[in-house]
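lol ok so funny story. i was supposed to be doing the assay writeup but got distracted and ended up predicting the structure for this chain instead. priorities right. anyway since i did it might as well share w the group, maybe its usefull for someone
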Amino acid sequence: MGVVTTGRFHVLDLARELHDLGHDVQFYSYLPLSRCIEHGLPEECYRALSRSLWPVVAARHLAPTRFQNRLVVVANSLLDLVAAQRVEACDTLIGMSGIAIKAAETARRNYSATVFIERASEHIFSQRETLLSMPAGRRSCITCAEVDRELRSYAAADVITVPSHHVEASFVELGTAREKLFRNPFGVDLAVFAPTAVPSSLSPTVIFAGLWCYEKGCDLLWEACRRASGKWRLLHVGEVGDAQLPRSSSFEHIDAVRQNELPRFYARAHVAVLASRQDGYGMVLNQAAACGLPIVCTDKTGGRDLQELIGGSKFVHVVPAGDVEALNAAIDDALNRAQTQISPRDYLGAGRKKISWRAYGQRYSVELERRRGTPARATSET
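and the output, tada:
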């Protein structure tokens, strides 16, 4: 099978797991080989795309913000054309939405491949509506060209893969047949994210890991912290986006760290929060859960899916997006639950394996076989 992407996203983990499960995988990307190997993908699976794309990729990262979205579309279009020329014989083509269009059409035409399109966020129309509803000056721009490529990739798909209930619902509400959708919650590396000790600090600490921006509801989270009047402090680990960092003794910011360094920051906190206005899933949810932290998140994340995977744990609180009162109340409850924990913190039990990347790959493998109409590989972790 072919996997077409620009960056890593979640499909590098998917490619690795499908290879380990016995599938013949070709991974098409302009990611460096060293990065792929670092994340466990064998060199034999790697298919480098043209170096002629590198100037466009570099320009995209160096250009002023107002031009970056346009350059993303240019880079995606060029990669798609190169991938379409390079794609090898395959029975399945897996591609990121907005990227794999020509490649998908070529794989279907030349090899009768089944096309899986990966959409990690809500339907582009739902996503755009959410972003436009944010206050002026806080909106992320989605260009007409991006919308066009997204819609074309949905049309090219035999199956659209989504990570959460609310993303699935956004497609159904806009007319996509439910049979065309495959919901598969993301995974986590359990070798990196393991149960942590109860923090020695007596000061209740809430952690948010990720981009500090309005999409992630950082202004709402800080408002909840402000209303708490010092009952808990907020720790942020990650890059700074379009929202300003608070200046307060109740707030601490740590610049972005490598993923394998995050557990030591989760170990400092009592509760993890993801207050997103729109987030396809939020992989930090799985990370925090694997480290044993009670979680508070909105219904615009994968919180409901995480609850289902681990058997409806009371340590995962899901609140309506944008509701600061509900957010604050849930954080208070989560902090109370955190006080009952003992070291090492682990409330997942048998659900731990179900949030692994291996379980994610096994669920995908079963779906691949189902769509082909042949018996699925046996698995104990789905």
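Residues 205-355 form a domain with the Rossmann fold fold (CATH 3.40.50.2000). The chain has two domains: 2-187+356-372, 205-355.
back to the writeup now i swear
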